[in-house]
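sry for the spam today, last one i promise. struct tokens for design, 140 residues
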């Protein structure tokens, strides 16, 4: 939980499931309708962070357990405490539901980032901005 004792809850969904949900809407959705693509999988933010830390301790142990590196920051005013998605319309009308369990999805996501640390470092360094500038020029 955040230092204030308030948990922030989100509905989590693996990226491939999100993409397949968008595809289902494009292929089978009715024009003008709204479809919520969700995982029916609510976790608190801190539980997600803890899950990632625990998995990193197994995959890439450091000198300090990753949970000890968590730094809490002040919450922004008006921050929503819960984001909930009712994706029942997706299942009822389009026959869509997530294909992956959240735990396997987060595992695959974490694996991708660990396998692509060079890309992560270029993003963190801001190097990608040079690429964008070269390709698209400076736009205000």
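last one done:
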């Amino acid at each position: 939980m955040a230092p204030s004792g308030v948990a922030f809850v989100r509905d989590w969904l693996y990226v491939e499931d999100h993409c397949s949900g968008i595809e289902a809407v494009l292929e089978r959705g009715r024009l003008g309708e709204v479809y919520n693509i969700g995982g029916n999988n609510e976790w608190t933010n801190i539980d997600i962070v803890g899950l990632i830390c625990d998995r990193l301790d197994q995959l890439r142990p450091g000198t300090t357990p990753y949970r000890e590196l968590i730094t809490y920051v002040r919450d922004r005013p008006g921050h929503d405490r819960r984001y909930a998605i009712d994706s029942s319309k997706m299942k009822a009308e389009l026959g869509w539901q997530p294909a992956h369990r959240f735990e396997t999805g987060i595992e695959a996501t974490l694996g991708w980032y660990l396998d692509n640390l060079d890309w992560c470092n270029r993003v963190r360094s801001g190097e990608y901005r040079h690429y964008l500038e070269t390709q698209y020029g400076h736009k205000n």
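The chain has a mean pLDDT of 89. ok im logging off now
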